[in-house]
Specification:
Length: 215
């Protein structure tokens, strides 16, 4: 996997992420969103890859972006961005590590990564803690937009927990992998968590769809 927005910035796929950036802006025009959850129904979708590419194009638009690897079960953002996976979010939550000290600058100007850190035994409990709420409040005050990459919505309660603390959710689907009933079940789970669903993104669609579809 690679970040097409960096390796092939003039490609149709990279342009599709820039279109997604624009659509996200218009979707939050009336009610701005500073903390957005990125999730998917199952592990079959490349949600982390989509989250990283979206973070890149947002930062390229001269915004200060914090990308948080809140998938404390199968973290991957550090690999995609060529960063170290720790200490990170888990250490801040479980051990009281200083938040600012674990934020990592990336090669993309304006894009900061908060890696997951070590995989804890109780990720749901940590993400549902008052300390997590304090972390989100701190990040909200220092970034234009905070993207939270969470576990799939049908795999763990983590996505619903964070969705209830966020300003919106983007659901990642993959053509040929995501079943209709999975997408509906994920949407229902997020609605039950009182999440604000901003839209769904379709990866690997027909060429004429330019890889992504929003809405």
């Amino acid at each position: 996997m690679n970040l097409v927005t960096l390796t092939h910035p003039q490609s149709a796929a990279a342009e599709a992420y820039r279109t997604l950036r624009t659509n996200l802006y218009f979707a939050t025009l009336d009610a701005p969103a500073k903390i957005v959850v990125i999730t998917s129904p199952s592990v079959a979708e490349d949600k982390s890859l989509a989250a990283a590419n979206l973070a890149v194009v947002l930062a390229q638009a001269e915004q200060q972006i914090v990308l948080v690897d809140a998938d404390l079960r199968r973290p991957s953002l550090h690999t995609l961005l060529g960063a170290q996976n720790g200490p990170g979010l888990a250490e801040v939550l479980a051990e009281g590590a200083d938040l600012q000290s674990v934020l990592q600058h990336t090669s993309v100007p304006g894009l900061t990564l908060l890696p997951s850190g070590r995989i804890p035994d109780n990720p749901s409990d940590l993400l549902n803690s008052s300390r997590m709420k304090a972390i989100l409040a701190a990040l909200r005050s220092q970034a234009d937009l905070v993207l939270l990459d969470t576990p799939p919505a049908l795999v763990a309660s983590d996505a619903a927990i964070l969705a209830s603390q966020s300003d919106g959710v983007v659901l990642i689907l993959t053509a040929g992998r995501t079943r209709r009933e999975q997408a509906q079940a994920a949407k229902d789970a997020l609605v039950r968590a009182h999440a604000r669903l901003l839209g769904a993104v379709m990866l690997n669609g027909p060429k004429h769809s330019r890889a992504l579809r929003y809405g």
